[in-house]
Please model this.
Amino acid sequence: MKPPVFDYIAATSTDMAVAALAAAGGEAKIIAGGQSLMPMLSFRLLRPSLLVDINRIPGLAYIEEADTCLRIGALTRHFQIETSPVIARHLPVLSAAMTHVAHLAIRNRGTIGGSLSHGDPAAELPMIAVLLDATLHIESVSGQRAVRAQDFFLDALTVDLDSAEVLAEIILPKLPPNTGWGFEEIARRHGDFAIAAVAATLTVSDGSIRQARIALTGVGPTPVRAAAAETLLIGHALENKLVESVARAVRAAIAPEDDLHASADYRRHLAGVLTDRALHAAWRRAQGEP
Amino acid sequence: MSEAPEMHVRPKIVGARIKRTEDPRLLTGLGAYTDDRQIVRPLHVAFRRSDQSHAKIRLIDSAAARKAPGVVAIFTAVDLSEDVRTLVATSRMKDYHATPIFPLARGKVRYVGEPVVGVIAQSRYQAEDALELIVIDYEPLPVVIDPEQAVRDGAPLLHEEAGTNVLVSREFKRGDIDAVLASAPVRVEGRFRMHRKTPVAIEPRACVAEYDAGRQALTLHSATQVPGIVRDALAAALDIPGHRVRVIAPDVGGGFGGKGSLYPEEIFVCAAARRLRRAVKWTSDRMEDLLANTQGFDEIVDAEIGLDAGGHVLALRADVIGDVGAYSIYPWTAALEPIQVVSFLPGPYRIEHYRGRVQAVATSKAPTGPYRGVGRPTSTFVMERLMDMAAARLSIDPAEIRRRNLIPADELPYKAASGIVWDKSGFHECLQAACNAIGYDAWRARQKTARANGRWIGIGIASYAELTGIGSRISVAPGMPINTGTETASIRIDSTGAITAAFGVASHGQGLETTLAQVVAEHLGARFEDIRVIQGDSAAVAGGTGTYASRSMVLAGGAATLAAQTVRDKILNAASHLLEASVGDLAVQDGKITIVGTDRSISFADVARAVYSEIGKLPQEARGELAATKTYDPVFGTTSSATHIAVVEIDPQTYQIRIDQFVVAEDCGKLVNPLIVDGQVHGGVAQGIGAALYEEVRYDPQGQILTASLVDYLVPSACEIPSIQVTHVESASPTTLGGFRGMGEGGTIGALAAIANAVADALSPLGVDINELPMTPERLFRLIEAAKAETRS
Model:
């Protein structure tokens, strides 16, 4: 379990990083926290000719509040997000999700940009990005582009990021007023990748749901939004019959697979149970309960 | 020599809660593990391991690899055939088929992960780069992966020369089992599956061989539990006399049995070091650890008990298939684990009629070896499930059915149906103490209310007994290459008055540097802090095997007692001349010899100075070296017992299991250090929880291992382990010197069954049986779905 030979550059600016990526002709990988990349190198599952280290680029790690959104630099560590008061105030569902991301030692090192770029099918951050309609800013020598999180995750460990591109910034719209949230995850052990996880937000006014968002991870190759299930909620108050039909719609919307830790059937079962719990939690919070 | 008077006036060192003396070193990074050893220009080994489950090796082409940067040598089995004599784990058991131990696969590979080629290079990186350039042409052979198929006539054979895949079979029998079962008023039976585990020590195995060409001497540092066994085996395999082979187990980061056997890699680095006249080092990475470390517990058990209407067990029958993997490991043989299952199945219960049959079946998986508990985690799981199933059938409380069947104190010693003799141990006392500690009756009441509210709470009891600290009369029985029934202690006071106590045991987390020093201090009359314990070094004493099988405190503690008493006599003898007082008037305490009732005393250092450099002060007969070496043999060993009780709650929707409370009441005899006993029990229970709920080595039907990383093989972390309450029962004086009983494994033995019973109890309203471990959420989901489907139909 030793990595094969590779070259290494410690970039000091994003321009330098993307230039190095471009020059490597598709053979380079970015290293940030290294929490997924290093094991893959050690297993020799990846054989990049060059590692471009972005850890020393100044100004890539930040959490900034704007009027309608939060901007998070790609190099921001999980721990910073987990403990950020700004995020706790505006996107508490993200704060809650962060406690499920691996363990403290990993959260001290791992980055949001790394997690999203890696695209693990059972990770929390991709799911939250999809839930919150994040926009991802990507840079390369040929310029900048923006991708909606919904369109970014293409398949397991496959994202819309060219080998010469670097994810630079994540933009998360603030939640509307009167929005409650729920986050439910089942993993084999605390900190493991999710067998199934559901995050939901409900925006409520006059006792009925105006906007509903439900996202899942661990139940398919990419995080998913359960759009049909969300639609069922609009205009209604949350009650058990409705939740049952929403859970059914969620189960129908996903295509989980068997793996060593859980069957597709169990994941589908959990998706329904966790949807129920996440929606009830979101509903309670939308009424101002803690 | 009377020591009784002083014993009353000073605090005992044995029994004191002394913090582990090794911990400051280990916890501040000052420990030195095998991989830490600093060597001039060592060479590094990477093994090309088999990616085939069962295949003939047609051709190995290493030409390209030999030219790779940094490569110094490449060896295959053929290259080393002149260097290494074949070792065989022999046994006198009939129908036993040994398998040879080679450093590298010879002719054929028999499991994924088996070392085939060793590449030796300037760095591990270069060695791994070169591995990829080796081409091996395999001819695939039929898979031998399912143990139930492998036992059948005509199944493809893993070891053709054995003529069968059944490496050993055995039957234990007492009484007329068939007739008694047939007429028993109540019978419960089950088919139980314990899935394969792997020990996962935090420090993977590592070994480095240094060859001194001038002296033709070999030193192996190895992360092993058994330096003495490895030394003796290497002397034979490499044809070097014992005084020119030294095996040192420095600080070792856990073993759990997984470092308790001789390994091919140890032979390889030694043979290579001698051939190359260079130091050769191999450190297992985690993937190699999961592929090729000895694994454990892999059994299918069909078992049945017959009871009378009062819930008394009349008869027990069991048929066991033990999947032992590809080889019969050295020196324990493939018989070790599966035979213990049938030996210990009757447990601490009075069962007159018994038949236990076992087949140890070779399959193309990593070899199994000792793993904490050996056989007894499975036997306890099966027996304790049967007891609960019988209790449910008869509507008797699980605690009560155990009370009715545990061997009463006045019938001990008791010869169990499998031939094991239990000496006096607190079978009933442990059950009662565990029930008291957890508040058993209160929990049952709470459970009733919770059930009415739709909550799934379960309470699970497991009682067991084990043989520990076994002596020569028991360990001779299987006819292994070695007899493990003795250990030696060598205690010496040097010219500065400092005390060195050397042992053949090899602590790898047990805290023996502390507990053995306590025993020595107690019996020598020395200060605890003046004693240095040397262990884990084959040169420390003439013979010794190591630390495993809950033996070290009993055997090494016994030897320490004998040696310390002898040295104490020598001190007293010399001191009586120096103080001009009779021995009977002297007391030894805190490293000083005092004339009782006076303030006249001299220190050990004063005595040592006289003995070693002022011998004119002493008559001839009092000048003997202040040293003694004693070997202790507990002959039979002793019985340790415990009851574990777990309370779990299962989420009725997600089927996640949470352990709410866990209690252990155990009888390990005289406690040397309660802090360390508690730590051992905690660790054992954690491992048992892992085995019950998380851990499972998985192979696919083609024999590819699926659990080759710690993402796939799940060990519990601190988050998954509840707080564990431990209650100590010192029931009766056992047969060992000092009254010690072994307790290193018990935590694991009881925990699986307690958890299994608690889960089954929680689900009893659904009619779900728990007969497979680990009980993962996936398995629970399937069982519950099936039960619900049955209810609907």
Remarks:
- Chain A touches chain B at residues 1-5, 39, 42-43, 103, 186, 188-193, 195, 260-263, 265-266, 269-270, 273-274 (CB under 8 Å).
